[in-house]
Amino acid sequence: MAETSGRKLIVEVCNAKNLMPKDGQGTASAYAMVDFDGQRRRTKTKQRDLNPEWDEKLEFLVHDIESMGSQILEINIYNDKKNSGKRSTFLGKVKIPGSTFVKAEPENTLVYFPLEKRSVFSQIKGELGLKIYYIDEDPPAAAAADDKKPAAEEKPPEKPKEEENKQEEEQEIKPAEEDKPKEEANKPAEDKPTVAPESAPKTDEATSAVAAPPPEVENPPIAYSEKSNHQDKVVERSTDVEMDLQQLARDRNRSAYDLVDRMPFLFVKVVKAKRADATTNPSASLYAKLVIGTHSIKTKTQSSNKDWDQVFAFDKEGLNSTSLEVSVWAEEEIKKEGEEAPTRAETSLGMVSFDLQEVPKRVPPDSPLAPQWYTLDSEKSPGNDVMLTVWIGTQADEAFQEAWQSDSGGLIPETRAKVYLSPKLWYLRVTVIQSQDLQLGSGSEASKKVRNPELYVKAHFGAQLFKTSRTSVGSTLSSSSNPTWNEDLVFVAAEPFEPYMTVTVEDISNGQSVGHTKLHVPSVEKRTDDRAEPKSRWFNLIGDEARPYAGRIHLRVCLEGGYHVLDEAAHVTSDVRAAAKQLAKPPIGLLEVGIRGATNLLPVKVKNGMRGSTDTYVVAKYGPKWVRTRTIMDRFNPRWNEQYTWDVYDPCTVLTIGVFDNGRYRQPEPEKDIRIGKIRVRLSTLDMNRVYMNSYSLTVLLPGGARKMGEIEIAVRFSCSSWLSVVQAYSTPMLPRMHYVRPMGPAQQDILRHTAMKIVTARLGRSEPPLGQEVVQFMLDSDTHVWSMRRSKANWFRVVACLSRVATLARWMDGIRTWRHTPTTVLMHALLVAVVLCPHLILPTVFMYVFLILLVRLRYRHRVPANMDPLISYVDAVSTDELDEELDGFPSTRPADTIRIRYDRLRALGGRAQTLLGDVAAQGERVEALFNWRDPRATGIFVVFCFLASLVFYVVPFKVFVLGSGFYYLRHPRFRHDMPSISTNFFRRLPSLSDQIM
Questions:
Q1: Coil, strand or helix: which one is 282?
Q2: What is the pairing mode between strands 552-560 and 526-527?
Q3: Is 202 helix (H, G, I), strand (E, B) or coil?
Q4: DSSP string spanning 216-253?
Q5: Burial profile 696-730: b = 16 or more Cβ within 10 angstroms, e = fewer
Q6: Which positions ≥6 away from 43 have C-beta within 8 Å?
Q7: % of the chain surpassing 90 pLDDT
Q8: Ramachandran bin of 186, using left for φ above 0, alpha for ψ from -120 to 50, beta for the remaining angles
């Protein structure tokens, strides 16, 4: 298969940084060993260099293109000790999944990967810079290969040289196994993993001998040997990773519907009809009618020489008859005498009936039933046939998704189950450096009178507009004014990118544009980290017709692939991966969600002006993947029983599920979808490989208050093949590296997040069928930045609840020191003496105490994943006016009197917050006043106290002081008084800056 795939993987080993010195002299002689798909390559050895630069290009054949994503590229760095006769020492390794490989581009990005440890006790540090991409080539013809083979065999002088190089490479690899135990090295050959067959290295060898020029034979493929322990070790490690990936694949293919109930459906596939006399009115149109009790449906009308090929799925529980009748009808145009226009008449060609109790059952993966010809029973036109097939199946049947469905309104596009993908988002950074040769003196006479004009740069990309700060230049008559900004403007860009960004230099003095330029965004350079600074360029500014050249501007533009573009609220994020594909990591698990059904839903609209109704569907969002179930029409207890899967890259993420009433299917006047409720499931609260099947209440906020709309039943399973990979995820940063080495401010992140939300909303709204704006905004929590009295109260009481633990501890200590329970206070005296006499037992005792407490609390932990809590949300503790304020849009659309009342209420609340902040600031200012002599008498007293305390602590041992202070604190109430202590009185008398505020 290697000869026919035509794909090559190119690995450019560029450099390494900050390697661990391993030669005993503070340096290292590093070389890289690269393994992929049973092939191995080696770089040169860079002598005594902790920051080696190889800049070598290694090629690998991709044997199977389809399985490339599951392959693992492994690079091991070793310290070469061949000259000293010792074993090569391990410097680190990098494992890269094949799913991150990208196609060759004109300028492939250099990506730095941190070196990983081989074991927990390995001392590894540093980074490895790589460029990894693949190229697709036309597979060589067989004849050409035959012609080249004899030519390669006619070079006997080069063969010994190759063998000599191979022997040298094998000698270098052999000592490279530093950490491998001796007993593992002495294992018999049959206990070791099976290595690649010898034919693959020979093919690579021949390819290298023919294609590579003679000077490049210094990096040939290293031949495999059955005696090579190092090769067995590499194969064993690669096999472990591939087994993990295969385990995830088996979990995905375990069963498509094992978390939901199988719903029986009656499937009828009508293919075509055949008339006995085909010459009779060949222009007539035919259609088939299916009747089951009160259910009746027609196929599309086709000419007699065309097929229908339609599938109908009837919910078996909703059928009210035990027989199926299929009839075929012909529509013909009949022109009667005396009538100008012909009239259309329908003629029955016959009918065939099926007993539903005799219909066969089909369960995938059985092959589909073959349609058969059935003769139509008709007295007027006998001999007509229809081709169809009937079977009993479930929603797992492959024909279900494209079939006409009785419970979702038929073939309405807006009611079908769909999967949506959010657009891939990037940060577009534009650094405005400076401008030159600005033509400022060619404007109007008014502009010439301005001595120091102020300029700023405005960048416009799509609906986003950002400006730099203003800067002043010298005389307007000078054409060499070079204003400098050195500011970054960051935009959100979605693939496929919009073609152009417009950068304009504006003169604030006269409100006119100096000039503008356009940047082609798809050709902008991409980078993955801050090590490679993108190149800056000069762009000519275009003015008006009279000024085709208005100067030039110096810009640095790049697409930031090292960031994760947040497109949802930070506390419910479901994806933290970087935008660049090269930085992607393999999934650590699989999330499976079964959307089973809902119960006791309330009506949200009126149907036919008489009774309440609801047409519900469910939207689930995790990462960039959105799923939407089919819409169950006019049922208060709908059953979807649909199951979906997601790859999990981080366990500390959140799954969001929302329930909506469909109003967009009503044509030609579609309405907005109505929100019914929403739940969230945090993956970190789930046990691995366990099924959670629970019902959650659906609560929605309305102007009249919170209202329970019903319950939804879902099943969730978080599967993971490696428990260690999940534990390791807790030690890694939540966001990619660029968020920490080059962070953005909170205000800028908030602006970019809401911009990303708008882009995702607009893109999903352009799908077919569209995912409504109100649905996307409700799922992304796009209104969390808007003021809400209810949320403010909820957050305040959350802080109070956290501080209440401290208050409880303080009350417990106060009970001990006031001798409310005498035995407890006596025990505390004994504990104080033990701590003072044996201080080395403090930390072990504290951690053992915490360990025992956590073990006891394990029995009482929540077994069901928590849902949104109306009690914590304080939905019942706010007035209707406060709820109406929360549901009001931005800007407000309420009357002026209502807004004035709300503003006064907000002012009162802000006044209390203002007082609280002032009291907190006053405490810190009193401490500062103690050291800056604002109150000379108070500071003088403190100076004398510090001098005396130094003498006392010099004489008195510290243990005695701690013991005496503890006994004094725990003294009996008989020796106490009710007034504040001296230290408290002294601190409260210190001055603050409150008296200096106007």
A1: coil
A2: parallel
A3: helix
A4: GTTSPPPPP-TT-HHHHHHHHHHHHHHHHHHHHHHHHT
A5: bebbbbeeeebeebbbbbbbbbbbbbbeebbeebe
A6: 13, 31, 32, 34, 54, 56, 58, 219
A7: 36
A8: alpha
Sign of the torsion angle spanned by Cα atoms 354, 359, 362, 366? negative
CA angle, corner 788, sides to 783 and 792, nearest 5? Answer: 120
What band does 937 get if pLDDT is binned at 50, 70 and 90?
very high
Residue, of 120 and 564, whose pLDDT is higher: 564
Nearest of 758, 780, 735 to residue 491 by alpha carbon: 758
Q: Please, what sign has the CA dihedral across residues 391, 394, 395, 397?
A: negative
Per-residue pLDDT tens digits for 957-984 = 888 888 888 888 888 888 887 788 888 8
Scanning 640-745, the segments in alpha helix (DSSP H) are 723-729, 738-741
**Tokens encoding 138:** 């036309």
pLDDT confidence bin for 175, thresholds 50/70/90: very low
How far apart CA 466 and CA 502 sit, in angstroms, is: 11
Buried/exposed 362-394: b ≥16 CB within 10 Å, e otherwise = beeeeeeeebeebebebeebeebbbbbbbbbbb
Helix (H, G, I), strand (E, B) or coil at 880: helix
**Cβ neighbours of 201 (radius 10 Å):** 20
Tell me the C-alpha to C-alpha distance, in Å, between residue 128 and each of 115, 562, 949.
7, 16, 56
Can you give the C-alpha Rg of the chain in angstroms?
38
| DSSP letter (8 states) at residue 895 | -
Q: Are 525 and 107 in contact (CB under 8 A)?
A: yes
351: β partners: 327, 377
CB 452 within 8 A of CB 472: yes
Rounded to an integer, what distance in angstroms lies between the CA atom of residue 689 and that of residue 581?
28
Q: CB-based contacts of 609: which residues, under 8 Å, 6+ apart?
A: none
Three-state DSSP class for residue 742: coil
Give the span between the Cα atoms of 657 and 711, in whole angstroms: 12
Cα(576)–Cα(571) distance, integer angstroms = 12
DSSP assignment of 126-163, as one string? -EEEEEEEEEE-PPPPHHHHHHHHHHHHT-TTHHHHHH
Q: How far out from the chain centre does Cα 395 lie?
A: 29
Helix (H, G, I), strand (E, B) or coil at 606: strand
| Dist CA 632 CA 676 (whole Å) | 14
φ and ψ at residue 227, rounded to 5 degrees: -95, 0
Q: What is residue 106's three-state secondary structure?
A: coil
Residue 476 scores a pLDDT above 70: no
Helix 158-173 × helix 199-211 angle, to 10°: 120
Report how far apart the first and last C-alpha atoms of the chain are (Å, whole number): 83
CA gap 446, 456 in Å, rounded: 19
pTM of the model: 0.78
Could you tell me if residue 905 is left (phi over 0), alpha (psi between -120 and 50 degrees) or otherwise beta? alpha
d(CA 716, CA 645): 10
Higher-pLDDT residue of 477 and 744 is: 744
What distance in Å separates the CA atoms of residue 291 and residue 297, rounded to the nearest whole number?
7
Mean residue pLDDT of the chain comes to: 82
CA angle 55, 56, 62 (to 5 degrees): 135
Per the DSSP assignment, residues forming a β-bridge with 32 are 77
Contact 456, 469 (CB under 8 A): yes
Q: What are phi and psi of 635, to 5 degrees?
A: -140, 140
Query: Coil, strand, or helix at residue 673?
Result: coil
Contact 568, 679 (CB under 8 A): no
Comparing 341-345, 409-413, 445-449, 734-738, the range with the smallest average pLDDT is 445-449
φ, ψ of residue 144 to 5 degrees: the values are -65, -35
d(C-alpha 737, C-alpha 433), whole Å: 25
Q: Which stretch of DSSP H or E encloses residue 829?
A: helix 822-837
* Neighbour count for residue 149 (Cβ, 10 Å): 12
Question: What letter represents residue 528's amino acid?
Answer: T
Least Cα distance to 265 among 229, 219, 300, 315 occurs for: 315
